[in-house]
TrEMBL record, chains A, B:
This is Arginine biosynthesis bifunctional protein ArgJ. CDD domains: OAT. Belongs to the ArgJ family. It catalyses: N(2)-acetyl-L-ornithine + L-glutamate = N-acetyl-L-glutamate + L-ornithine; L-glutamate + acetyl-CoA = N-acetyl-L-glutamate + CoA + H(+). Heterotetramer of two alpha and two beta chains. Keywords: Acyltransferase, Amino-acid biosynthesis, Arginine biosynthesis, Autocatalytic cleavage, Cytoplasm, Multifunctional enzyme, Transferase. HAMAP family: ArgJ.
Length: 405, 405
């Protein structure tokens, strides 16, 4: 059983503490560095951006994860992505990890590094190292929310949650998480940082398998503007602070319970990113059923989610079935237009490829709300997928015409 | 030698006439039907939308072209796309062709049909048939511009041109064209109608080859919003009214001259579509050099052209090399970030993957102009491609949130 904790956060699981600091990297008068520490060695699994242009911390972490050590801490800064910063950037990422190792007397190769913010600007390493000392000096189980605030860039709200998972044997494990990300969000790990913590005991291989499965139905099922970025990273760490027995098989009852909790946290964070999409005014859930298989259903759903024409129509609360049908048509998914059924907000607007009459004013009112659903049935098979996106508004243009990444 | 004709249009080539009519399909007080007629049987080649959802006229024309007959006329209406209209739509497309055949006493299977406008609305066939009679009654060589105006939907300007091509033997052939299309423009034949006419004599197979080559460097090298549509069609017809000898080999001197003229017309029309992109304030030429091959250069260039983040930055006159570099990074093209060189408006902003210092105010002024270039050199090989796009503005959102396709 999975239950969301009231005010749960990334340090809700046992044995996790966080500290923050205001380094003055880019922003004035706010924390811009978060340090997340486990009291015990934690197994870890991570997924990184698929962009060929990878930031220095991503390169650092990929090498780190390849070595397979347990982790003890994650340090994250906002305001500077440490991307397109050359070999100085690589040195800066390593210096951040070392500063944490020294401040907390941790073993080498036990600290993961994340950066987000402007790219192409040299890292102010000294400021960050001073901030790490500050953050390390006041670690607390209560600082999870502060950590989520410290990693924000264009985000308007911090994003965090935690769930309690009751295992079949009655023991309870906790899974927490935090994320940042507003623009440039698309599957395949777009500009998004997310950290998930748990006090469960999970061998590295099982954790890795769970992460990759959960990723597909959460962060890789959202789209804000279709761009992917240099820094995206999703990290999950399990420190075993709970007395519950190890999760050794994802398909066992305990494994299924753990996985359900992991998915709940990842989906919550992914949805929070969509809801905070740059200029977003509506949260849109798109479900495609009846595809030849799940993969084609997802391709069709994501193509709808990416279409600027669909997204501007949603901003206008327009049940524009034509644009949705077009998107399905060019998605590459197998489609027989004469079988397609489309609904907006539960109102059926297209059946067997032909539009149904509807009251335009009533439809507009139905869709002029913060949460919209689009349902498509391709009528071909059992394939199904759900993805989430937001609309394209005037503010999306304003924010992105003015913000320098 | 290719020379643009002052005020050249789709009926500039010999043996072509056009007529228009106001059928009242959707718009009041304007022509919404164009009839283009050749005095002689014309060889023809066409390319259609790749969208799985194809409008009735596209289905009609695909069957027509498969039969390989010469064509005598094209009828085009605006205001109703005759898409998602079921078997009634198929009957309407056939009725349009038959009405032209009867009005002009043409042989069966000699009339091509195009429709553009709202989808999912039954075609007002009687109105259109009456309009065809009107248009057929006043065909003229002077009505090319009126025909280009009659096929407009959200277009703000008619799009037409013609070139004179002086062949190596001194004879002159003429190639004309017209197009419509504003939103939903992307390669693979997005919502766009284009007709190209010539008085050259070109066997069907050669014409088809020329069309497919020219398509790649014109209509398939533009992107407005990445969506593709149900009706897109590009048609070229050669009626042989010129005394010049047949073009039997595209790689011969005469063939090369003809092809250069065809590319000039297609690029002019494609650029006109981009310039008239919904809400567009800037025309952007993106060139990628140094790719592993031409295909990868084009993938990288089109990915830049499609990125909403790049397009909003261009609206803001922001030389945001980071977003361009990111787009190259996720394009799938082979890229070594440490070799990439980027320029905006001729100003180099990134070299070997590292940003160069530049005066932000001067850069903004440099880019706050109607025509912008982005040049990327991947530093890996000889692959090169140029594509064209426009920016994403507030008006793009406004137009598409309000317009019902």
């Amino acid at each position: 059983m999975v239950t969301f904790l009231a005010d749960g956060h990334v340090t809700s699981p046992r044995g996790w503490r966080a500290g923050v600091a205001a380094c003055g990297i880019k922003y004035a008068n706010r924390d811009d560095l978060a340090l997340l520490v486990s009291d015990y060695p934690a197994t870890a699994a991570a997924v990184f951006t698929t962009n060929a242009v990878k930031a220095a911390p991503v390169r650092y972490d990929m090498a780190l994860m390849a070595q397979g050590h347990d982790l003890r801490a994650v340090v994250i800064n906002a305001g500077n992505a440490n991307a397109c910063t050359g070999s100085d950037g690589d040195a800066a990422a390593a210096a951040m990890a070392q500063a944490v190792e020294q401040a907390l007397d941790l073993p080498p190769q036990s600290v993961f590094v994340m950066s987000t913010g402007t790219i192409g600007v040299p890292m102010p390493v000294e400021k960050i190292v001073r901030g790490i000392a500050v953050a390390a000096s006041h670690l607390s189980q209560d600082h999870g929310p502060a950590a989520a605030r410290a990693i924000m860039t264009t985000d308007t709200r911090p994003k965090y949650c935690a769930v309690a998972v009751t295992l079949p044997d009655g023991q309870v494990i906790t899974i927490g998480g935090m994320a940042k990300g507003a623009g440039m969000i698309h599957p395949n790990m777009a500009t998004m940082l997310a950290v998930v913590t748990t006090d469960a005991t999970v061998p590295r291989a099982v954790l890795d398998q769970a992460l990759r499965r959960a990723l597909e139905v959460s962060f890789n099922s959202i789209s804000i503007d279709g761009d992917t970025s240099t820094n995206d990273t999703l990290l999950v760490m399990a420190n075993g602070a709970s007395p519950a027995p190890p999760i050794t098989d994802l398909d066992s009852p305990a494994g299924s319970a753990f996985y359900a909790g992991l998915v709940a946290v990842c989906q919550h964070l992914a949805h929070a990113i969509v809801r905070d999409g740059e200029g977003a005014t509506r949260f849109v859930t798109i479900t495609v059923r009846g595809a030849v298989n799940d993969a084609e259903a997802k391709v069709a759903a994501m193509t709808i989610a990416r279409s600027p024409l669909v997204k501007t129509a949603l901003f206008g609360a327009d049940p524009n079935w034509g644009r949705v049908l077009c998107a399905i048509g060019y998605s590459g998914a197998t489609v027989d237009p004469d079988r397609v059924v489309l609904s907006f907000g539960g109102m059926r607007v297209l059946e067997n490829g032909l539009p149904l009459p509807f009251d335009e004013k009533a439809a507009h009112q139905l869709l002029d709300v913060p949460e919209i659903t689009i349902d498509a049935d391709l009528g071909l098979g059992d394939g199904q997928a759900t993805v989430w996106t937001c609309d394209f508004s005037y503010d999306y243009v304003r924010i992105n015409a003015e913000y320098r990444t």
